[in-house]
Write a structure and sequence with these properties.
118 residues; alpha+beta; 4 helices; 25% strand; globular
Length: 118
């Protein structure tokens, strides 16, 4: 996966915005102000994704290229190496899972607003 594939995939989800809230090299993809994916655009070696805590452990045990979230809450975030052996389609699936997990944590009102967006 390259940075453009990541960007295009993340921005394909309803309500997603991109920004640089931390510095000028860490791009963050968020939905309604809540992060679901971030990466370093200068050193695109891994992406951080939100993950169900139980699934996060399973993925770390199954894949050597999945590690506890770098600079993140290790219980809720995984870092996935972008130049490893994980197929792009699987990474895209995990990005979508991260997005859905964040959306599920939004208020019902905000979720309804998302559903109504075109």
């Amino acid at each position: 996966m390259n940075i453009e594939e990541l960007r295009n995939h993340c921005l394909s989800f309803k309500g997603t915005k991109e920004g640089f809230p931390f510095d000028n090299k860490t791009i963050v993809f968020s939905v309604k102000g809540k992060m679901f994916c971030l990466t370093d655009i200068e050193d695109f070696e891994q992406i951080n994704l939100k993950c169900d805590p139980e699934k996060a452990i399973v993925l770390r045990e199954r894949y050597v290229d999945v590690i506890p979230g770098y600079h993140m809450n290790k219980k809720h975030w995984n870092s996935i190496k972008t130049n490893g052996k994980i197929p792009v389609e699987l990474i895209k699936e995990w990005i979508h899972d991260s997005y859905k997990l964040v959306v599920a944590g939004l208020s019902k009102k905000v979720q309804k607003e998302l559903d109504e967006e075109v």
